[in-house]
């Protein structure tokens, strides 16, 4: 009997080793995927420091690198679990940390009047983009995300609404890339036109904050107008960021009412938005009164947030197929560009 047990011992060890390898393999694939997105995010940051690319920013640079990798070498299937983790989980973490950039107290006490303009800009951008997309027979999901990105706060808004809209990762990555590109072009045009416009610095800052796509784009365009112009521009932009939260819940309500859910899947509650609000409250009322601590802490968190979001963009960018992009994104790009021009013109005349 003992001999029989001894004879079976090697078999037990072998099966245990097989089990160990089976459990270790997925873990190594996960680590490899996260490390891969980390590496490409680093390359994106490095590329964004090169003159010319510094206007685009690390998010768009990282997406460009990821898309180029996909076209040249294909999707790295072996490390897909880690890449998907970056594209989904890290994306939500970045949105939560992004809340620290929103000072609710400042918006509510100094920017209530701007919120009316902000709400109008958001409604105008979304509705017009969707209408133009229908007229142009453009992809509806891609066009809606571009309209939201144009009206609210660029890549962060697209990242926040994509789970609610159940958008494809490829569409999300394409939308972020287009928003970064068009927003950069517009912000540069603003700086070129500023000396020729009959606007005071504060008015120019308001115009930038109400009509431009990203916070970084507003900062780039409004900085030449001085501290007052930059401050009011960022304040107007933060109002649009604040309105992202009710917009997300409105989209959830609309999708549930219309039953427009793919394959019968349920719409998950966007818990990350509660984290976004919690971080906003933390930055506004807990860290805010302590200026010295707040500046050091928020600068550090801002850099971490940007890098985490860049890793997520790498994960999304690896899903982009350029062959499909050429035919799928052209019309949504036209719709979004027309909307951006009209939003700039309309907000300019309303000031």
Question: What can you tell me about this protein's structure?
Answer:
There is one protein chain. This protein has helices at 2-47, 58-73, 80-98, 104-110, 112-136, 140-151, 155-165, 169-193, 201-211, 215-222, 226-242, 244-258, 271-286, 291-317, 322-328, 330-350. The protein contains 16 helices and no strands. The protein is globular and about 60 Å long. 81% of the residues lie in helices and 0% in strands. It is mostly helical and 351 residues long.
List its traits.
351 residues, 16 helices, mainly alpha, single chain
Indicate the topology.
Elements (H helix, E strand, L loop, with lengths): L1 H46 L10 H16 L6 H19 L5 H7 L1 H25 L3 H12 L3 H11 L3 H25 L7 H11 L3 H8 L3 H17 L1 H15 L12 H16 L4 H27 L4 H7 L1 H21 L1
Oligomer: single chain
* Strand content range: under 5%
Helix content: over 70%
Low-confidence stretches are: 1-24
Number of helices: 16
User: Which shape, going by the Cα principal axes?
Assistant: globular
Q: Kindly report the average pLDDT value.
A: 82
Topology order in helix (H) and strand (E) letters: HHHHHHHHHHHHHHHH
Radius of gyration: 23 Å
Beta strand count: 0
Largest sheet report:
none
Distance between the termini: 93 Å
Backbone structural class: mainly alpha
């Amino acid at each position: 009997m003992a001999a029989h047990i001894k004879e079976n011992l090697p078999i037990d060890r072998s099966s245990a080793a097989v089990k160990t390898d089976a459990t270790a393999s997925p873990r190594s694939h996960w680590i490899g995927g996260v490390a891969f997105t980390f590496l490409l995010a680093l390359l994106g940051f490095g590329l964004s420091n090169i003159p010319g690319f510094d206007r685009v920013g690390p998010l768009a640079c990282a997406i460009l690198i990821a898309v180029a990798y996909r076209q040249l070498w294909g999707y790295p299937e072996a490390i897909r679990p880690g890449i998907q983790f970056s594209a989904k989980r890290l994306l939500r973490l970045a949105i939560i940390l992004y809340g620290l950039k929103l000072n609710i107290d400042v918006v509510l006490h100094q920017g209530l009047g701007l919120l009316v303009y902000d709400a109008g800009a958001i409604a105008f951008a979304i509705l017009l983009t969707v209408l133009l997309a229908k007229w142009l027979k453009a992809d509806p999901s891609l066009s809606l995300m571009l309209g939201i990105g144009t009206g609210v706060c660029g890549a962060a808004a697209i990242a926040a609404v994509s789970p609610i809209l159940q958008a494809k990762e490829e569409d999300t990555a394409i939308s972020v890339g287009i928003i970064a590109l068009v927003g950069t072009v517009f912000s540069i045009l603003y700086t070129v036109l500023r000396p020729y416009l009959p606007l005071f610095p504060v008015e120019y800052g308001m115009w930038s904050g109400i009509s431009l796509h990203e916070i970084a784009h507003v900062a780039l365009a409004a900085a030449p107008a001085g501290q007052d112009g930059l401050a009011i521009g960022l304040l107007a932009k933060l109002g649009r960021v604040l309105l992202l939260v009710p917009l997300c819940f409105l989209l959830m309500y609309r999708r549930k009412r219309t039953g427009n859910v793919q394959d019968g899947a349920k719409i998950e509650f966007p818990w990350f938005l509660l984290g976004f609000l919690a971080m906003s409250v933390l930055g506004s009322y807990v860290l805010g009164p302590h200026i010295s601590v707040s500046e050091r802490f928020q600068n550090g968190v801002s850099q971490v947030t940007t890098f985490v979001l860049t890793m997520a963009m790498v994960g999304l960018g690896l899903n982009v197929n350029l062959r499909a992009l050429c035919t799928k994104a052209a019309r949504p790009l036209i719709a979004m560009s027309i909307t951006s021009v009209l939003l700039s013109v309309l907000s300019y005349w309303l000031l």
